[in-house]
Amino acid sequence: MSLKDLRQRSGLTQKEAANVFGLKYRTYQNYELGNTSPDMDTAAEFARYFKCTIGELFDLEEGDGEQIGGPDRELLNLFNSMSKDGQNALMATAKGLAETFPLEKESGVR
User: How many domains does the chain contain in total?
Assistant: First the structure.
């Protein structure tokens, strides 16, 4: 189900949805059209409001080749189950860990 489908199912116009989320109309419209992507906090707000997962919000669970599995799915499910404060804490922790343990580029040298 797409952002547009969820909005329409909720009976909102694009302008009403933009107001609900405190966004400019054009910004919301671009999210819905897929021209730009919301940041994780905004996506989480959409998911909470529409009572869905972030994956459902962006059709990641529809089998279109973009499926999330394994640890990625587990992390997404944990994120979706948290309060806004919990999500912010998780993001801060993840950013710190990413800086401490950066992905090593394959150089062929071991």
Answer: 1
